[in-house]
Amino acid sequence: MTAARRQRKSWRGLFFFLALAGLALLVSGGNMASRAATTERVVSDPNSGLAIDGFDPVAYFIDAAPRLGSPEFELSYAGVVWRFRNEGNRAAFVAHPDVYMPRFGGYDPIAVARGASAPGHAELWLIAEQRLYLFYNAAARDAFVGDPRAAIHGAERGWPAVLRTLSP
Which of 7, 43, 119, 141 could disulfide-pair with 135, CB 3.0 to 4.6 Å? Predict the structure, then answer.
């Protein structure tokens, strides 16, 4: 193989690597770390595999209310099945799952801050700092409302330890 041909091959390999890296960055929305942290474990129904009991995660933001999704608009993502009310909500989720997925995979942030993994309920919810949080009970939601930043900070500290206790 000539020196010129070896150099062309090495450039092709580098181009391929950069193209793959660019694609990964594009798919992640430019923020691969936060996306990975969001999708590691998601609360789901063990029988159906549905995330957040089949409620549309985008509806919390659009309708300011929990709304059931339709089997017609399903998407498999992060190891669970998500349902949406319409194609527009599904497309919004596909474009930005890290925005619309419940924070901490749908586990109650108050419990996570205490080192426990209590699954949140789809109808006990709150949007804070442009993220969806689900709660185990109304008392946990009330505690969160009292100081959302402190609750979020505590949950962020506790999440790695809780995550290690969750089965894959």
Answer: 141
How many other β-carbons are positioned within 10 Å of the β-carbon of residue 22? Answer: 10
Name residue 50's beta-bridge partners: 81
Q: Which two tokens stand for residue 65?
A: 């209310």
User: So what's the pLDDT on residue 167?
Assistant: 75
71/83 Cα distance (integer angstroms)? 6
pLDDT value of position 90: 98
**Beta-bridge partner residues of 125:** 134
Tell which phi-psi region holds residue 7, choosing left (phi > 0), alpha (psi between -120 and 50) or beta. Answer: alpha
What is residue 54's DSSP assignment? Answer: G
Residues contacting 128, CB < 8 A, separation 6+: 144, 148, 152
Tokens of 37: 């942290």
> For the chain, which residues score pLDDT lower than 50?
9-39
pTM listed for this prediction: 0.76
